[in-house]
Here is the input.
Amino acid sequence: MKKTLAGVTTLVAGMCWVAMAAQNPTPKAGAAAGGSVERGRYLVENVAMCGECHSPRDAEGQLDHSRWLQGAPMWFTPTVMQPDWAFRAPALAGLPSFTDSDMEMILEKGLQPDGRAIRPPMHVFHMNAEDTAAIIAYLRSLPPNKQQ
Ligand code: HEC
Here is the structure.
């Protein structure tokens, strides 16, 4: 129950993101080309909470910061059956598996690189180009998981 509630909180946080992004749609001119790592870190860690799903947890269910954004099994399940629910969130540290245009499709349009809709619980974010560029810059600045 606790886990389900936390999951719902995470989902609500994601939805708030969509509302906030919609209220602030105007990026600073030229910023999208070379995204700001610091802004990306802020968005990932404090606003969109990507690490809640994309980082592994320890036996107590706490985020394992030594494996930050290195991909993880989903730790909560939907209360209502969802046939397309994804049970694993892929590694994002170093962005080993996604190009910049993949990331734009995913974060700005909610589409997988092959054009299909992304699966829950990954959010459809509708981010603007500046925020996407910042998140790409931050994720590329992280060391990838050497074991993968
Ligand atoms: C509520 C949990 C959750 C949050 C928060 C979340 N993700 Fe995800 N994400 C997932 C899951 C689960 C998948 C796997 C979806 C699939 O396999 O179709 C995924 C998939 C992805 C993918 C690959 C998409 C694909 O289908 O190829 C990328 C890239 C990604 N997430 C980036 C992010 C970023 C960046 C953030 C923060 C801005 C974020 N995610 C926040 C759960 C989450």
About this structure: Helices lie at 2-23, 37-47, 51-54, 100-109, 129-141.
